[in-house]
# Entry
Amino acid sequence: MMLVGRYRSPFARRAAISLKTLGIPYDHKPITAWGNLKEMRSYNPVGRVPALVLDNGEVLFDSNAILDYLDQTVGPDKALIPLTEPGRHKVMRLVVAAMGALEKVVHSVYEFTMHPPEKVHQPWIDHNLSQTREALTWLESLPQTPWLESARMTQADITTAVVIQFAQRPGIDGFPDAFPKGSFPKLESLRDRIAKLPAWQETMPPEEEMRFRPTIPAQG
Ligand SMILES: N[C@@H](CCC(=O)N[C@@H](CS)C(=O)NCC(=O)O)C(=O)O
# Structure
């Protein structure tokens, strides 16, 4: 298998952490839509990372579809989102809250970076960041037993940890530091627990990559 997409993409990173957590070996092609749009479109018609090339040549794209495939492959005892009810909806609703928080912080970054400064609409950035804040506040309010939904780590924990890491990443110059350290103590401590795992450490992008400022890619 080959995972396509740099780990600085939180969507690629959740796929990478999950592959490693599940013990599935893979090759890694660290490209981005920003620098390699034409190549990325050869894997995913939408031209976004991540994509997963299977050993038979089939390509899956969108982190959710990739993770669902991995869970089906490893089976019920190891799946990171339970394959059956009632566990499935209990974990799924936390995963979609974390994914909503992530999409909204990513949208706010795009609003800031994809427009010339005079066309950036600050109220839209604020709106998106407030949605991220509300979703993370909701996740913060949940008991951890010791994980978010069960006695074992699930996709809800991995995705939440990745979101916290992305929301608190080193800033892009001029972008508001909306979620300083200490904003979500319980979720940050969950992230710190996951950060001890080899799957996290082996997929950690260097700090300078996190300061990367995406721009509209050249059409190839
Ligand atoms: N829903 C997708 C989102 C993927 C996504 O937005 N990837 C970003 C990188 S963080 C990307 O490639 N963006 C390029 C673009 O939107 O043109 C997933 O979960 O995989």
